[in-house]
Structure formats: C-alpha cells, structure tokens
C-alpha cells in the first residue's frame, strides 16, 4: 500500500514534466507518449531502488536517456507536429491578454516563434535549456539528469540563451495597451 501511495505521489508530481520534456526533445507526440509511459513503468519497477528525495533528478535523467535513445532510433527527416505545452504558454501570458484580443494573438504568435526557435537548438543546448528554464531544475539536477559537469550546464545554458537572443532579436517587444 505504501508503494502505491509513493508511486501515485511521484506520478502526480512529475508526469507533466516527463511529457513536456519528451515533447521538446523528440518533437513528436507519439514518441513523447511512449517515453512517458516507459518512464512511469521504470519508476514503478525501481521505486525501492532510488531515494525519494532525489526522485526528480532520477526521473529526469531516465527521461533524458530515453529521449536520446528515441532520437537515435528515429530519422531526423521524420519530424512531426506536436501540441502546445500548456505550462509554457501560461508562463508568458498575463492578465491583460484576457481582455485584449490583439495582445492575446501577439502572445500566441510569440509563443510559437519561441517554441520553434527552441526546437532548432542543437540537442545538447536544447536539453539543458528545457530542463533548466522550462522544467525548473537546478544546475546540479540538470548535470545529474544528462550526466555532464555543472560547468558544462552553465556554458550550454549561456550558449542556448545567446542563440535564442540572436534568433529572436528581430521580434522586438511592442507595447500593446
């Protein structure tokens, strides 16, 4: 009974992070579904083998490794459309967009452009950026999740931010009232 409670808690806590990260990495909804399901199975099978306090790192590392496996198996020409990430769009919306259709449309267009630019980042930069900026992991957790040194995490994050700034510099913010 305790195992089931622990498992349900972990699933409720991290299922959206697993799926969201899988979407960003694989760019394919069906692969993200498969990866999410596989991670959930691995959580259940290894529930007694990892520290609950370090569960987030273990879960995200497992997710990352499965994403890499899927990317290696899949051809790069087979990129498919994926659905919007609800958490990401909520993070850039504000209350003014609810009453201003122009602003709401502008935010959605910018969301799509930012998401497209993130998709175009090299795999190593995209992995670090998504884990840190979107999933909210700390440097140490990112380093553990993708098995690289903390300094590499910082460098990759800096490079990802600079690349995104360069790609998005033509989309200057407009004041909409």
Structure description:
By secondary structure, the chain is mainly α. The protein has a domain at 1-74: Orthogonal Bundle (Rna Polymerase Sigma Factor, Chain: A), CATH 1.10.1740. 75% of the residues lie in helices and 0% in strands. The protein is built from nine helices and no strands. The radius of gyration is 17 Å and the shape is globular. The N and C termini lie far apart (54 Å).
Give a topology summary.
Elements (H helix, E strand, L loop, with lengths): L1 H25 L2 H17 L9 H19 L12 H7 L2 H5 L1 H20 L2 H12 L4 H8 L3 H19 L9
Helix pairs in contact: 1-2, 1-3, 2-3, 3-8, 6-9, 7-8, 7-9, 8-9
- Based on helices, strands and strand pairing, what is the structural class? mainly alpha
> What is the assigned CATH homologous superfamily of the domain at 1-74?
RNA polymerase sigma factor, region 2, helix turn helix motif
The appropriate CATH architecture of the domain at 1-74 is Orthogonal Bundle
The share of residues in helices is: over 70%
Q: Number of helical runs?
A: 9
Largest sheet entry: none
Strand content: under 5%
From N to C, what is the helix and strand string? HHHHHHHHH
Task: List unreliable stretches of 5+ residues.
Answer: 76-84
Overall mean pLDDT score?
81
Q: What is the CATH third-level topology name of the domain at 1-74?
A: Rna Polymerase Sigma Factor, Chain: A
Gyration radius over CA: 17 Å
Termini separation (Å)? 54 Å
């Amino acid at each position: 009974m305790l195992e089931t409670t622990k498992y349900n808690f972990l699933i409720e806590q991290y299922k959206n992070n697993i799926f969201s990260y899988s979407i960003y990495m694989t760019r394919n909804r069906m692969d993200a579904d498969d990866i999410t399901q596989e991670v959930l199975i691995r959580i259940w099978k290894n529930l007694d083998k990892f520290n609950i306090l370090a569960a987030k790192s273990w879960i995200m590392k497992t997710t990352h490794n499965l994403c890499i496996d899927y990317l290696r198996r899949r051809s790069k020409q087979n990129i498919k459309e994926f659905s919007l990430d609800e958490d990401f769009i909520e993070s850039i919306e504000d209350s003014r967009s609810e009453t201003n259709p122009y602003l709401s449309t502008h935010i959605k267009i910018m969301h799509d452009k930012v998401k497209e630019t993130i998709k175009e980042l090299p795999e190593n930069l995209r992995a670090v950026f998504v884990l840190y900026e979107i999933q909210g992991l700390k440097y140490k957790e990112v380093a553990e999740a993708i098995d690289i040194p903390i300094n590499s995490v910082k460098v990759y994050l800096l490079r990802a931010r600079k690349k995104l700034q360069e790609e998005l510099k033509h989309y200057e913010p407009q004041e909409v009232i």
